[in-house]
Amino acid sequence: MTSWVATSVALALCITVASAADVWNMEQLEQAKKGKDPVIRVRDIQVPAGRTLDFQGLDGRIIEFHGRVTFGYKEWSGHLIVIKGKNIKVLGMKGHSIDGEGHRWWDNCGGNCGKKKPFMIYTQLQDSVVYGLRIKNTPAWCFAINECNHVHYYNIHIDNRDGHTKGGHNTDGFDVHKSRNIRIYNSRVNNQDDCLAINSGWNIVFENNVCEGGHGIAVAVGGYDVNEAKNILIKNCKVIKNNIGIRVKTLLNGRGIVDGVTFENVELKDISETGIVIIGNYLNSGPRGEPTGGIPIRNLNIKNVRGNVLGNGTNIQINVAPGSPSGWTWNSQVKGGKKNPKCKGTPGNLKDPCNW
């Protein structure tokens, strides 16, 4: 833990002894936001259907979650929790649970069809800490990290394992967009979509995390108002029983850039489809057609990515527009499954990873 984060959490725990507002319902929350208590303790709130647990206008304050937070059922496309501001500490206290009871929305098609499903938590933060949250059964996407700067998310558990048998889909763990200087670490995600999806951002670190059951760790660029991902580090992570291990995917006919993505010391275990995927022809409905080079992938570093793919899976898939990528380095040991006959578009300085 970096020193400023450790100091922030220590100060938060000290302040909670001093002055805090206990909040048991939405009306008390609005009163607490108008007050001056440095700590807001959320206790066993039942959020009414179609309402947002709204933490805005709380710069410099601490939000603690105690007990069980639940939400009424409604088909809508809003956010169940919104946290915006500067210098905010969000702390999950011992024994708490934020339970979306997602089975009420799950219908095997997530955001693509069927019921309208709300986001779980939207964050737009600066110089802040989100620590220790225990989140269960999100209706669809869990964390939206949007336009954040200098924020640490750590010791967070997202448990959507019930969705494997009850129709969970698009239950992304962390979605990052237009954010800078973000660290996500010492966390665990069990879900039915990307553990991490970086759509755009700069100086993002995803470290010491465990991803189970979903679609792996992805840098997925294209189709948004900003299509740029630079200086991304995914390090010391485990990807267990996902369909994909790690991937960089850029939108077919998209425009933008991916520069400086590093996967270092990533362990893959029992991957069902493909261990490593690098493609330039991504669409939401799946890869299609010949890859385009409008979003070049530069300075990609694969360092000690290792593990196994199950019998009918594929070790490595690379399909990018020839001449668009550059400056790649590659060191992987992915066993099992089957090999592609040839990677397509790999930079000329690199031996074909598909045939190592």
Write a brief caption for the model.
The protein is mostly beta strands. It is built from 3 helices and 28 strands. The chain is elongated, with a radius of gyration of 21 Å.
What does this structure look like?
By secondary structure, the chain is mostly beta strands. The protein has a single domain, classed as Single-stranded right-handed beta-helix, Pectin lyase-like (Pectate Lyase C-like, 3 Solenoid). The chain contains three helices and 28 strands. The protein has helices spanning 3-18, 26-34, 163-166, and strands at 20-23, 39-43, 46-47, 53-55, 62-66, 68-71, 79-86, 89-92, 97-99, 119-131, 134-136, 143-146, 149-154, 157-159, 174-177, 179-185, 188-190, 196-198, 201-207, 210-212, 217-221, 228-240, 244-251, 257-271, 274-282, 297-298, 301-319, 329-338. It has a 13-stranded parallel beta barrel. The radius of gyration is 21 Å and the shape is elongated.
Determine the CATH superfamily.
Answer: Single-stranded right-handed beta-helix, Pectin lyase-like
CATH architecture heading? 3 Solenoid
CATH class membership: Mainly Beta
Largest sheet, spatial ordering of strands: 10-12-15-18-21-23-25-27-24-22-19-16-13
Task: Give the integer mean of the pLDDT values.
Answer: 94
What's the CATH topology name? Pectate Lyase C-like
Strand content: over 45%
